[in-house]
Amino acid sequence: MFVVKVGGGAGIDYEVFLNDLVRHRDYLLVHGGSHELNMLSTRLGVPPVFVTSVSGFTSRFTDRRTLEIFNMVYAGKQNKLLVEKLQALGVNAIGLSGLDGRLLEGRRKRALKIRRGDKKVVLRGDYSGTIEQVNADLLRLLLNHGYTPVICPPAISHEGVAINVDGDRCAAQIAVALQAETLLLLSNVPGLLRDLDDETSLIREIPRAELDRFMEEVAQGRMKKKLLGAKEALDGNVARVIIGDARGPAPVTGALCSGTGTVIER
User: Fold this and answer.
1) pLDDT tens digit string along 232-248?
2) Considering 6, 94, 112, 232, which has the largest number of Cβ atoms within 10 A of its Cβ?
3) First CA to last CA across the chain, in angstroms?
4) What homologous superfamily does CATH list for 2-265?
């Protein structure tokens, strides 16, 4: 069993990705939609706002209006597009957000502590949070009856409110809940790069014991969250995490069979 998360960044050919994915069996798909969300929210007059926490992690500030647009893109257009394409390829896919059946449940953050220049600022009114529970029984029910779940944020808070959660950490928590062997985190970069402007600077392997150091000293921007997701998956007994490129001709096969990307093993 493996869990694959495909990002929503620019440059990903979902036709190519899905045609490769369906060559494999026993998987579950998690997806993002950031590029589409950025474009739509800008057109609707709610341009994206990104903030950096005091611990160095970058995330989207999600007020209630942004959350509504988030649902339109992730649980609407992007999710159903992937379900449609998988159905056309003969996979009985079923699309779910973390809201459905309390699939992904967690705690809403009451405030965000961020850095703004040299200052620390507290932001309120954010609808984001952290997953604390995965409804693994629902996923096993679907998998055991021949359905392939296609999952996206948002999650649901303990109080029943939608919350934005990180897609990579979402995939990690699902992999842990289902006791998956491998977690694939695929996006529009080859993996962890020493130099963001040089794709040949790929770090092909990270020793498990040095993961924290690479997260602190090498990873930048969104890659920090991917390494955090990798750490959470490995801590939850997932055997292997591969951070790879969704843009290649066979991204899933390359990652699973050849270790293409950045590999971290328990």
Assistant:
1) 999 999 999 999 999 98
2) 6
3) 16
4) Acetylglutamate kinase-like (3.40.1160.10)
